[in-house]
Each structure stands twice: as structure tokens, then as C-alpha cells.
Amino acid sequence: MEVIIKQTYPEMSQVAAQLVVDVLNAKPNAVLGMATGSTPLGLYQELVRLHKNEGLDFSQVTTFNLDEYVGLPVDHPQSYHHFMRENFFKHVNIPPQNVYIPSGTTSNYHAFCQWFEKRIEDCGGIDLQILGIGSDGHIAFNEPTSSLSSRTRLKTLAKPTIDDNARFFERREDVPVYAITMGVGTILDARKLILLASGNAKATAVAQTVEGPITSMVTASAIQLHRDAKVIIDDEAATELRMRDYYEFIYQAQPGAPTT
Ligand code: F6R
């Protein structure tokens, strides 16, 4: 795992955007795994800027989103469908038929989850999965005690997640209790992972993810098992890392490292 610490949120968003650009340069028809929430907003803004100003092309890209709230129709202002449309999809040139977001309103969740997994497989797997992290250490909506080999399925949200996400709803009671989410196993199958975190509220979860034991109590810690995972964070999210100096040393020394 590589840990990249940048002083500010805009800087970490730019590093993340460059990694997406690198993937698209190498494979214009890449399959991208998308996340919602506050954290990837800077990354999406930078990708939109690169599309508008520098011709970054998404015309062959396919995307799969991590999760969606159960019960929210696609046009609900807090649905992840709405979030993705407003913050990313309507600003870039990804063909709408290449966009896959879990359904929050399907009549058969079990069948939908199986279909979603099969679509990922049929599209050749996810090349780069973008991840945020919950204050309880979740990735996607894989709450503490989720199986580390889980696949796309229904999950009941944990109380800290409902509390965290209540800021987007009028009342806490409006936050859905269930979500449909890629599993930890689904996420680990992606060829590359980037996990983004910003701010003090994420510092403990980041330290547990990077330096703690691999445990279903912090599902993000499962990314320690991945061969190509990068954790990109800002200064505040890095405050509880014990090996911070080492990560910074690695990052600075990288340009001089042997490449063959
Ligand atoms: C959203 C998702 C969640 C968020 C996490 C952090 O698609 O998968 O795991 O990444 O809850 O959310 P923010 O970025 O709002 O702090």
C-alpha cells in the first residue's frame, strides 16, 4: 500500500485526478469504480475541468458506482444517482448506457445484486476503484463486521453512518436505514484502488486502515491485502499515522527509485 499525504484537499484531489488520467491514457475504455460523498467532489471537479479545458475523453469509459440508498428514487436529491449526475456525469461525455449505479428501487434486490456483479465481470472487471472512508472505517457501505469476502448485497447502515449522513437530509429519520452496496470482495477484485480521506474526522479510521490489523471491524483495512492500493489523504487525515515520516520519505524518494 502506498500512502500519499498532501497538505491540502485540493492538492490531494489533483493527485487522485492524475491517477485517473494515467489509467485513461493507458486504456481509454477503462472501467472506473465511482464513489459518492463529500470526499471525491474535488476529484470529480478536477476531472470535469480536465475534460472541458484539456479534452480528457470519457467517451469509451464505463462506470460502476459503489452503492445506493434503498428506497430513494433516482431523482431524489439525496440519491447517489442524483449526486453522480449533478457532480460528474452531466459534465463529461460518458455514454449514459455505460453508467451503472446500484438500484435503490428494484423489486428484487437479490436478483439485482447478482446482475450487477455479472455486469462488472462482463465488462472485464473494474480497472480503478475510487473509495472514500466512513468515520467507522467502512468502504462503500460495508459496515463493521461485514465479511471481507462479501459481494454486492443489501446492508443495514450502522448508527455512526446514519449520524454522519444526516447532514444531507432534513431530519435524521429521513436517512434510509438500508443500502445496496458492492462487497469488500467486489472492491478487492478491482485492479487498482485509490482511497481518499480528508479532515480530522477521518484520522482514526485512516490510521486503523493503514496501520491497524486487517479486521472486519474496519472494513477499509482489507485494502492491505490489495496489490495496488493507494491511500491519498490531506494533512488533517494523516495526524494519527505513526509511520507518517516514512510515507513522506517514500513519496519524496520515488523519482529516484529504479524503474527496471
Ligand atoms: C459512498 C461511499 C461511502 C463514503 C463514506 C465517506 O459512495 O461509498 O463509503 O465514501 O461514507 O463519505 P464522505 O466522503 O461524505 O465523508
Description:
Helix 1 packs across helix 2. The longest helix is centred in the first third of the chain and has 18 residues. Helix content is 33%, strand content 16%. A seven-stranded parallel β-sheet has the order 1-10-9-6-2-3-5, with helices on both faces. Strands 4-8-7 form a three-stranded antiparallel β-sheet. The protein is globular and about 55 Å long. The model has no long low-confidence stretch (mean pLDDT 97). With 260 residues, the protein is an alpha/beta fold.
**Number of E-type strands:** 10
Uncertain residue ranges: none
Describe the global form. globular
Q: Quick check: average pLDDT?
A: 97
Largest sheet: 7 strands, parallel
Order of secondary-structure elements: EHEHEEHEHEEHEHEHEH
Span of the ends, CA to CA:
20 Å
Q: Measured on Cα atoms, how large is the radius of gyration?
A: 17 Å
- SS element count, helices: 8
Structural class: alpha/beta
How are the strands ordered across the major sheet?
1-10-9-6-2-3-5
Q: Provide the list of bound ligands, each named once.
A: fructose -6-phosphate
**Helix coverage percent of residues?**
25-40%
* Share of β-strand residues: 15-25%
Keywords for this entry:
globular; alpha/beta; binds fructose -6-phosphate; 3-stranded antiparallel sheet; 8 helices; 260 residues; 16% strand; single chain; 33% helix; 10 strands; 7-stranded parallel sheet
